């Protein structure tokens, strides 16, 4: 299996990874940290997917997709922190004034997990940010030790996967997800 990671610029490829089975469902579409909470609450059903379709045509696109051949099998959200709610988040600190990028969601489709795709997505997100001039990329994974994590809440990633990718612990946060503390990890791209 050769996994290729590419910018998420084709909405038809994003839809099977992030979208709901029912077009009227109000699933996240990986918008909760990307847009203001008021807009996030206003977008309902198909409007959420339409918003993501617009993001796919933007520069930069909203993240990266992992492909197994032509099949999209995973997603990672990555953007300048200033363009996300992490810019104003009181639970996740700012380490310095660098224009960092945030990597906050890693998702692998059922049937494709436990094959190293999340590692490829993290590496692809790093390269995506580096190619766009990011001096540093941050992630806010769960510090779960060896404890199991509910897959629904594992989107933030886990500490050991980011350590394998070269990220280092930069700060503690007051954010907790699925009963596990989140930490701020960084990778210097300069």
The proportion of residues forming helix, as a percent range, comes to 10-25%
Q: So what's the overall shape?
A: globular
Tell me the strand order in the biggest sheet.
1-2-3-4-5-7-6
What count of helical segments does DSSP give? 5
Topology, number of strands? 7
Rounded to the nearest angstrom, the radius of gyration is: 16 Å
How many angstroms does the end-to-end distance come to? 31 Å
Please give the largest β-sheet.
7 strands, mixed
Based on secondary structure, the structural category is alpha+beta
Contiguous low-pLDDT stretches (5 residues minimum) are none
**SSE topology string:** EHHHEEEHEHEE
- Average pLDDT number: 95
- Approximate strand percentage: 25-35%
Commentary on this structure:
By secondary structure, the chain is of the alpha+beta class. 24% of the residues lie in helices and 27% in strands. The protein has 5 helices and 7 strands, in the order βαααβββαβαββ. The protein has helices at residues 11-18, 37-42, 46-56, 117-131, 159-164; strands at residues 3-7, 63-68, 71-80, 101-108, 136-139, 168-177, 180-188. The chain has a 7-stranded mixed beta sheet, with helices on both faces. The protein is globular and about 40 Å long. The model has no long low-confidence stretch (mean pLDDT 95). Residues 3-190 form the N-acetyltransferase domain. This is GNAT family N-acetyltransferase. It comes from Streptomyces osmaniensis.
Brief synopsis:
This protein has 190 residues and is α+β, with helices and mostly antiparallel strands. Helix content is 24%, strand content 27%. Helix 1 (11-18) crosses helix 3 (46-56).
């Amino acid at each position: 299996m050769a996994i290729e990671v590419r910018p998420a610029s084709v909405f038809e490829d994003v839809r099977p990874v992030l979208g709901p089975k029912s077009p009227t469902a109000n699933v996240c579409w990986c918008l909760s940290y990307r847009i203001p909470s008021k807009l996030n609450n206003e977008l309902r059903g198909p409007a959420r997917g339409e918003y993501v379709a617009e993001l796919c045509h933007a520069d930069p696109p909203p993240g990266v997709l992992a492909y197994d051949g032509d099949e999209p099998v995973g997603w990672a959200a990555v953007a300048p922190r200033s363009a996300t709610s992490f810019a104003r988040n009181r639970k996740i600190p700012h380490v310095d004034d660098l224009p960092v990028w945030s990597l906050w969601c890693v998702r692998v489709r059922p049937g494709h997990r436990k094959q190293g795709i999340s590692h490829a997505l993290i590496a692809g997100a790093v390269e995506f940010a580096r190619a766009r001039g990011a001096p540093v990329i941050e992630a806010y994974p769960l510090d779960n030790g060896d404890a199991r994590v509910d897959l629904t809440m594992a989107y933030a990633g886990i500490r050991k996967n980011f350590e394998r990718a070269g990220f280092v612990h930069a700060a503690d946060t007051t954010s907790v997800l699925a009963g596990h503390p989140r930490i701020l990890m960084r990778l210097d791209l300069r």
